[in-house]
Design a protein that fits this description.
Two copies of one chain form a homodimer.
Chain A: H1 4-18, H2 27-34, H3 38-50, E1 54-57, E2 63-66, H4 75-82, H5 110-128
Helix pairs in contact in A: 1-3, 2-3
Chain A binds a DNA duplex through helix 3.
Protein name (chains A, B): Rrf2 family transcriptional regulator
GO molecular function (chains A, B): DNA binding; DNA-binding transcription factor activity
Keywords (chains A, B): DNA-binding
Chain lengths: ~140, ~140
DNA sequence: TAATAACCTACTAAGTCGATAGGTTAATAG
DNA sequence: CTATTAACCTATCGACTTAGTAGGTTATTA
């Protein structure tokens, strides 16, 4: 299940990407328009800023703005930051690999075999979609 | 993240499918071989029996056995029973559809648009794999 | 009749999620 | 120079889920 954090994060980024001008967008505006708790959204946008997706400006007329072009922001990157690993099992994760303590060997593990395929197909979809595709 | 319930369930089913004879396999044997808490595994196998994947036999020489051929058991079916919806968001789920309370319309929702693609590719992988493929 | 193994019910420690509360800091307007 | 604005930061919390544990009962076989 996708967490609300990730869900709201994607919605917020899309909202910002849809702006005709590149002016900063305020958290309150996004929260209102997308029906998101403003405080919760604040923490999400903060993560996205610290991860290099967004820039920010304080004070009146401030807000958040995209640093890169929407075409250059892959969904894999966004989801890895907000949701964590894309793989459903750590032993098939490319970026967060971890050995299972119970499995003697991965080669003969049925779960491993299946989840590698799931990971690859998911990775394929998320890698081909950019923020621009969701606008 | 895949729950241990599902992970263990798949491992157990694979273990049973690997048996040369169709004799019942005991929970204790699977638990020992796959490093799973026996009590926890019991509850999982019970679910799989009630869902029609396994048959059971009590008393000495008893255990669990496959009801259908491994080739006829799709991974989609197993995962739906143990893990629940395959879709990452209820609003794109085929079997457990639920409207988002925050979204005004799904057509313009970026998360919806993306997660439909993820669902389809995952469904494709899990639908093409049967228990026999993981043996 | 004893042993075996499935079956059933209830409970729990630990962790995560989605928020809320209550501030501080920096930029702008007047 | 002061007030306002909006990002930024820290702490806390209730509700829920997960992965088990405990302690039995029922049905089958030897």
């Amino acid at each position: 299940m996708l967490s609300k954090k990730t869900k709201y994060g994607i919605k917020a980024l899309t909202f910002i990407a849809r702006q005709p001008e590149r002016n900063p967008v305020q958290t309150s505006e996004i929260a209102k328009s997308e029906n998101i708790s403003q405080k919760f959204l604040e923490s999400i946008l903060l993560i996205l800023r610290k991860s290099g997706f967004l820039g920010s400006k304080k004070g009146k007329g401030g807000g958040y703005y995209l640093i890169k072009e929407p075409e250059d922001i892959k969904m894999t990157a966004i989801i890895r930051v907000l949701e964590g690993p894309i793989a459903m099992v750590p032993c098939v994760s490319l970026n967060y690999y971890e050995k299972c303590e119970d499995c003697p060997e991965e080669k003969t593990c049925s779960v491993h075999k299946l989840m590698i395929q799931v990971r690859d197909s998911t990775l394929n979809v998320l890698g081909e979609n950019t923020l621009a595709d969701l606008t």
